Amino acid sequence: MEYYKLIETRESVRNYDPDKKVSDEVLKRILNAGRLAPSAANRQPWTFYLVSSGEILKMVKQSYQREWFRDAPHVLVVAGDKTNSWVRPYDGYNSIETDLAIAMDHMILAAENEGVSTCWIIAFDYEKLREVLNLNENQVVYCITPLGYPKEGYKKHGNKKRKSLDEIVKWL
Asked: What is the full DSSP assignment across 79-119?
């Protein structure tokens, strides 16, 4: 898909066919997009948890209380170790959330390019995910997304409401 059209038409999908899994080849291309994402000082402080197996998937799905989320055949969890990320020396800013957000965005756009639906989620139960994924105290989960195909008959909304460039850009 042409890149700007991809950005324009990507939307968060809240409708998944639980029986239509994404192929391993497509999943690998999506994950590779995250691997290739830039990170501060090239630290690459992330781990991508692709959850597709029965019991673990069921437990991960308990971290977000929306019925549609339970239908997703895969859930991608983007986590990172804040002790491995770059820290700005003059004020202590840790780049972990920025690095993880860039990686997730790369994977969400790659998924859209592959025809795979996503929905950026940050309103999850962090402690449930920590327990299920057995994360240590230095690891943080920044975001999760379902990965899958919509149920038969789903139509994109196509009504992204965005401010105009004149409202958000200052040409100096």
From this structure: EEETTTS-B-TTT--B-HHHHHHHHHHHHHHHHHHTT-BB-
Neighbours of 171 (CB within 10 A): 5
Q: What is the CATH number of the domain that holds 123?
A: 3.40.109.10
Does residue 4 sit within a domain?
A: no
Q: pTM value?
A: 0.95
Q: How far apart are CA 34 and CA 21, in angstroms?
A: 20
Structural domains in the chain (count):
1
**d(C-alpha 86, C-alpha 21), whole Å:** 36
Evaluate whether residue 5 is within a structural domain.
no
How long is the chain?
172
pLDDT digits (tens, 9 = 90+) for 25-47: 999 999 999 999 999 999 999 99
